[in-house]
């Protein structure tokens, strides 16, 4: 994901390390451009960290929120928090200073973690879509099929698979396998942190970590939409014929599950909207001999990062429990006996 030197508003050609051979070029933004961008990026980082921290505290503190769905949401918020706290700040400096000053080892760790977190997010959303499928489409089987234990297994699988993909690809240099000479002659320089992938690597990694889970989510949520619409029509018929208490409880439960599915469907839609442009360019870049402007790739990476910023906003807008919990956290009520 990946960036990095950018063409932009520069006056002179500089190098990241003036005294070193094979230093990367440093493109200097004018101060009138760089300063406002730093303010915007810092605001995004703070909002991402604080928003997801509130989600984590809310679900972890309130026992009534300890459900399989919310444990998946909690783990997703942890991934978003890590991206905001550990990936975004170095990426901000790299994007605006157009150089990497943190060494080769941290570059590999940063790139690996970046890939891991984006992959684990979509795997979490895939499992959440399965959770919502059973809740809406197979409600009688939901409590036996989707338990807290099953949700924890889903969380472990998401993190483990993502770690293997992210760290395995980078540290084993599978991303440049077959194009080592091209990479070291054309892209490798001191002060750069560029994730370059061969055509095979970009296709395989994008397919495994984005395309397959993405298509699966879209298919499942389309099925949920059809079932939810049919249930809504059925409930309307029941309302006109019966007003019993038990029917009322059933209808309320069904409505709650459909609302939760709708909310998490919106989370999925936000994720796909934020990350699809980058993954498309990631596949096309090696096909077109890496001719996509680095500044465009970097912009698309930050669009993907914004997904982690938007998720708490979606929860705040659609979930009453999150708004109530947020109020209790802000005013310190959670510390009261």
Main sheet specs: 2 strands, antiparallel
> If helices are DSSP runs of H or I spanning 4 or more residues, what is the number of helices?
10
CATH topology: Rhopdopsin 7-helix transmembrane proteins
Which CATH class applies here?
Mainly Alpha
Order of helices and strands: EEHHHHHHHHHH
Q: Helix/strand/pairing class, anyone?
A: mainly alpha
Helical percent range?
Answer: over 70%
CATH architecture: Up-down Bundle
The CATH homologous superfamily: Rhodopsin 7-helix transmembrane proteins
Unreliable parts: 1-11
Q: State which percent range the strand residues make up.
A: under 5%
Global morphology: globular
Terminal CA distance reads 46 Å
Task: Indicate the radius of gyration in whole angstroms.
Answer: 23 Å
List keywords for this structure.
337 residues, Rhopdopsin 7-helix transmembrane proteins, globular, 10 helices, mainly alpha, disordered N terminus, GPCR_Rhodpsn_7TM, trace-amine receptor activity
Characterization of this structure:
The protein has a single domain (28-238, 255-332), classed as Rhopdopsin 7-helix transmembrane proteins, CATH 1.20.1070.10. The model is unreliable at 1-11 (pLDDT under 50). The protein has a two-stranded antiparallel ribbon with strand order 1-2. It is an all-alpha fold. The chain contains ten helices and two strands; from the N terminus they run ββαααααααααα.
Quick structural overview:
The protein has 337 residues and is mainly alpha-helical. The chain contains ten helices and two strands.
């Amino acid at each position: 994901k990946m960036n990095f030197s950018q063409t932009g508003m520069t006056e002179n050609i500089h190098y990241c390390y003036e005294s070193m051979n094979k230093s990367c070029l440093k493109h200097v933004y004018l101060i009138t451009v760089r300063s406002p961008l730093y303010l915007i990026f810092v605001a995004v980082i703070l909002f991402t960290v604080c928003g997801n921290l509130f989600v984590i505290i809310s679900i972890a503190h309130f026992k009534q929120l300890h459900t399989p769905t919310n444990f998946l949401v909690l783990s997703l918020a942890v991934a978003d928090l890590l991206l905001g706290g550990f990936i975004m700040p170095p990426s901000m400096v790299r994007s605006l200073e157009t150089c990497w000053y943190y060494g080769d080892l941290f570059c590999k760790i940063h790139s690996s973690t970046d890939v891991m977190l984006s992959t684990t997010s979509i795997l979490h959303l895939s499992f959440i879509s399965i959770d919502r499928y059973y809740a809406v489409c197979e409600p009688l089987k939901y409590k036996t099929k989707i338990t807290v234990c099953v949700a924890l297994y889903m969380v472990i699988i998401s993190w483990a698979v993502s770690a293997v993909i992210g760290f395995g690809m980078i540290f084993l240099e599978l991303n440049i396998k077959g194009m080592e000479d091209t990479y070291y002659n054309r892209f490798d320089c001191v002060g750069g942190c560029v994730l370059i992938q061969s055509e095979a690597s970009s296709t395989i990694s994008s397919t495994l970590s984005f395309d397959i889970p993405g298509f699966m989510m879209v298919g499942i949520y389309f099925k949920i939409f059809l079932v939810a619409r049919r249930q809504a029509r059925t409930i309307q018929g029941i309302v006109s014929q019966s007003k019993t208490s038990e029917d009322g409880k059933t209808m309320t439960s069904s409505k709650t599950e459909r609302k939760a599915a709708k909310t998490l469907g919106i989370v999925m839609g936000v994720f796909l909207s934020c990350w699809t442009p980058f993954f498309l360019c990631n596949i096309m870049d090696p096909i077109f001999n890496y001719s996509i402007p680095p500044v465009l790739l970097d912009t698309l990476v930050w669009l993907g990062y914004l997904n982690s910023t938007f998720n708490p906003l979606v929860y705040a807008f659609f979930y009453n429990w999150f708004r109530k919990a947020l109020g209790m956290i802000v005013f310190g009520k959670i510390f009261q006996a």
